[in-house]
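Why should sequence recovery work at all? Because a backbone constrains its sequence more than one might expect. Tight turns favour small or flexible residues, buried strands favour hydrophobic ones, and helices have their own preferences. The token representation captures these environments compactly. In the example below, the structure is given first.
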């Protein structure tokens, strides 16, 4: 999970909702556990309600999620070493 580092029972999350872009590229996908998938979906819906344009939504949500994922990867690589 990009948020907590869980490695089981992951779901694939569309950073910018599929219904808006039909984008299944790796650049628009990130793994999340069920708990964090629900949280991120709620945040995404709240941001969508502001009328933010799609490129800005992708930058905002993608940046946050990828930053969490990168932190967990670095942590895991240090712990595993």
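From this structural description, the recovered sequence reads:
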């Amino acid at each position: 999970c990009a948020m907590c580092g869980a490695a089981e029972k992951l779901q694939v999350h569309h950073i910018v909702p599929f219904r808006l872009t039909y984008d299944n590229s790796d650049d628009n996908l990130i793994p999340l556990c069920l708990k964090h998938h629900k949280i991120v979906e709620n945040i995404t819906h709240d941001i969508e309600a502001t009328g933010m344009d799609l490129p800005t939504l992708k930058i905002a949500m993608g940046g946050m999620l990828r930053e969490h994922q990168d932190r967990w990867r670095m942590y895991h690589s240090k712990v595993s070493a």
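A few observations help interpret the result. The longest strand covers residues 10-14.
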